[in-house]
Amino acid sequence: MAKILAIESSCDETAAAVVEDGTKVLSNIINSQAKLHKKYGGVVPEVASRLHAEVIDSVVKEALKTANCTLDEIDAVAVTYAPGLIGSLLVGLSYAKALAHGANKPLIAVHHIEGHICANYLSGLTPPFVSLVASGGHSHIIYVPDYRKYKVLGKTRDDAAGEAFDKVARVLGLGYPGGPSIDKAAKMGKNRIPITKPKFHEETLDFSFSGIKTAIINYCHNAEQKGEEINVSDVAMSFQDTVVEILTDNTFKGVKQAGVKKVCLAGGVASNSKLRESFKQRAQEEGVEFFCPELIFCTDNAVMIGAAAYHYYLRKEFSGLDLNAMAFVPIED
After folding, report:
1. 96 and 69 housed in the same domain
2. Could you tell me the residue range of the domain that residue 92 belongs to?
3. What is the pTM of this model?
């Protein structure tokens, strides 16, 4: 039995959790800055890091209190070290290193994307499988042959899916974050706006969302110049359906390429109801098991970091106090 105290601060959520044996959630505390950043239309890095510093101590203490355990009962301290906003990462990492050193506990460094994937272990998923990781900063198709092993099959060549959702939502006046607002608006719309999909070589599983985003922005600007009314729900649905179709098609091509019978969603965009529905339907059609985390574990949280860290703990793969935060590190490294 291993209890891991996990800390996540890669963007605008200050999160801490206590996870037992990689799957049992004893606490899950998240302090979100979304409302504050909303007025800026996106995350302001300097503001985010300052707010992390203000609340991280209370968030960690609340995680321990909710789990009904002391620091002495913790077996290891895990923390996100990359990728993410460097200032935000440094706050969580510095706190975790000080805590691990002071309490004489091993320190475990976890890759943020790996954490998102491992959130699916809470739902009973085991390797091998293929995962789509889609968020504001990432859009990857990843083959996971075993615990702690990752191979990128495809990724975005420009904007991440979540980033495109945010930018389109801003143009439509739906605010930040864009994913939930577009998902909601699309439920009342019709897919009637033709959007050209990017064309790549048939063998690639890469994505490109910049052109789709630009097509929507141009459609809205042209309508405004002509004095035409924009049906926000129709635009939202047309955009969302196009993105979801591309994400689904490429991921299931990856499932066939890897020769596996399990597929999962991970990351903030995995909260999108249309994407979850699309994956579930395609999985049934192709005889593949489909997994996705509970909604609370799709967006940034520390439980996913604890779930990933457990497999480091079993192998005694610990980090030294010279561990540094990194804005970008490929998951395959």
Report:
1. yes
2. 3-117+297-314
3. 0.94
Reported as a single tens digit per residue, the pLDDT across 170-198 is 999 998 888 999 999 999 999 998 898 88
Please indicate, yes or no, if residue 18 is contained in any of the structural domains: yes
pLDDT digits (tens, 9 = 90+) for 292-316: 999 999 999 999 999 999 999 999 9
Range 118-127 burial, b when 16+ CB lie within 10 A, else e: bbbbbeebee
Task: Give a yes or no: residue 122 inside a domain.
Answer: no
The secondary structure of residue 197, as a DSSP letter, is: P
* Residue 252 token pair: 């299931």
The answer to whether residues 133 and 49 belong to one domain is no
**In terms of domains, do 132 and 256 share one?**
yes
- Yes or no: say if 55 and 14 are a contact pair by the CB < 8 Å rule: yes
| Strand duo 129-134 + 289-291: pairing | unpaired
Whole-angstrom Cα distance, residue 4 to residue 98? 16
Cα–Cα nearest to 115, from 206, 4, 273, 275: 4
